[in-house]
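Summary for the steering committee. One of the milestones for this cycle was to obtain a three-dimensional model of the protein with zinc ion bound, which we needed before selecting residues for the alanine scan. The sequence and ligand used are listed below.
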Amino acid sequence: MRISGVKWLIATALAIPFCSGAQTGIDPDPVTSAKNRAMVAKQQEEAAKNKRKFIDPANMDVSVKPGDNFYLYVNGNWIRNTPIPASKTRWGSFDQLAEESSKALRELLEEAARNPGANSLMKRVGDFYASGMDSAAMEKQGYKPIKKYLDAIVKLKTKTEVVDHISYLRSHSITSPLYSIRVGQDSRNVTQYIINIGQGGTTLPDRDYYLKNDARSQAIRKEYVAYITKIFSLCGADEQTAANNAATVLRLETSLAGTQMSRVEMRDPVKLYNKFSVDGLSARTPQNLKWASIFSQLGYAVKPDSVVVSAPKFLIFIDSLLSSVPVDDLKTLLQWNVMRDAAPYLSSAFVDANFAYNKALSGQKEQTPRWQRVSNMVDAQLGDLLGQLYVDKYFKPAAKQRMMALIENMVTTFDGRIKNLDWMSAETKQRALAKLHAFTRKIGYPDKWKDYDGLSIKKDDYLGNLRRCNEWRYNDNISRLGKPIDKTEWNMTPPTVNAYYSAQKNEIVFPAGILRFPFFDFDADDAINYGGIAAVIGHEMTHGFDDQGRQFDANGNLNDWWTPADADEFKKRADLVVKQYSDYVILDTLHVNGRLTLGENLADLGGLSIAYEAFKKTEQGRNGQPIDGFTPDQRFFMNWSQIWRNNILPETAAQRILTDNHSPGMFRSNGPVNNMDAFYKAFNVKEGDKMYKPAEKRIRVW
Ligand SMILES: [Zn+2]
């Protein structure tokens, strides 16, 4: 689920002046003194003893000049020699760690399934896992687990019954048709919760898939229609009916897509904030959507007086669509929503049909193994139970201390950089600093675990378990209306290999799962940890000051704290970043969308720049002594580049260009360094090198 205001970290042959020519022969600044030689020898000895190479020359392609393509220079051999596993769509640093996380979860879950009596925590996660692994039971059931929901839809007769039934489906977490609705912080008054209503109703990953007529979009629509047809057939429809239903679903979803805002339009938090009284909203949707009655059907104990709507035009369209479309077509759409949400968790015929459709979208060759699908599902559904088992076994409390110290260094450095900005007035700087020092810092795992009170998990009912988990979360969500904000909760589970910034909570969050190499390692030198996790810390901090985050104040409120002149200066610089990234191309012709990825690119540029300056304050940052043949500065930039290395299937790359607000790995590596003087110095990048940008053109925002 998309939670507004939350940014995730992630959803690549010429002589080098200091290169000896051998594959591993990067011999930077000559080591002159005996003392230095002894120090390097000692470091090398220790590295050899630990058998750890944080920068492994075997991964590099030294036939590529670092100034021509830094990403390929650092990672070229790794990219050539590391195939994507058949059940993956992308394979890189994040994916490898995520794989380790899911293997760790599998062990914990298998143990819990074997020993369910140990305690209630073990029993619930163990039973959930067992239910998902019991494929024989699912085979026997076919589509029986959803039959009663489909039958109930068949019985609907009038438009009013259809509209009421939509609320029923939603409040029982069976499916959420047409639009999204959830309780969240009120962006203009973050001490309170409010109901947020957003656009929805489509299945394909972006509205473009419905609206564009290029060959790829057409081919994917064809696969989608085949998928809908197949699922209706599996649920008992004859061939003709199934085909007709598929055409109806595509037609209705296309009309919804045509009214949705684009991903770029949705980056504007001011445009997304449209507050209505409940009566005022009903007046805008007079034909079918009477909101006071809908909220009571949805189970809200507190009667809301107002709501925030991100896309009013879309709701108005839904209201008229409900009038103009025959009841039978709406029933088909609702049935499809039920089938679609359940298909991946039913018998193999459903799972295979779902996989064939996903394969067309992503290129994935083989289905993700069942143990992995189920482990990840238990993590997603019962993350606060499974997370407790995970951190007990895998999280070192000392990591939290190290992270606190790193964050402190980063905040101090960012503070200095804001004070030194030449484009911002003293007035705006003061507010920026207030915001910086107000960040809440969360590391490893939540202080308070959810207990999922009242949630029942059965050993023989996988789909039912999923539905009950969703229903528990739904009730938990709607019960918040009128209550104080829960500041302890996390939007990611502890094993997650990711990090995030929340604008409304003004917090930076780092789950245990990312506190591993190449991001972080107790035994690594500072260059590695600053080029890794410190840059990630900087990335999350800079989100507070990117094109969206800068519109929220120190308290998390959507509230403009900029002088108009300073805002103009910011936009001028941000536009340069848009231009730089829009020029990047993948798969020969697909351009990065510089507007869609702006927030992430600003965060990468700011994060790496702050991390570099903070690194230069460390002993290693000052001493310049090489390790394993690389200077500290080189190691800093090289580790940044290696965290972004990945191989990705072309189908997935094409999809992500449309849907992912993060740039592809190569540009996350190269985009920021391209603007940093220290990079040019560290690798002797000169005019004529492909990445070379004249000093006056290098972009600095934060
Ligand atoms: Zn980010």
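Key point for the committee: Confidence is low (pLDDT under 50) at residues 12-33.
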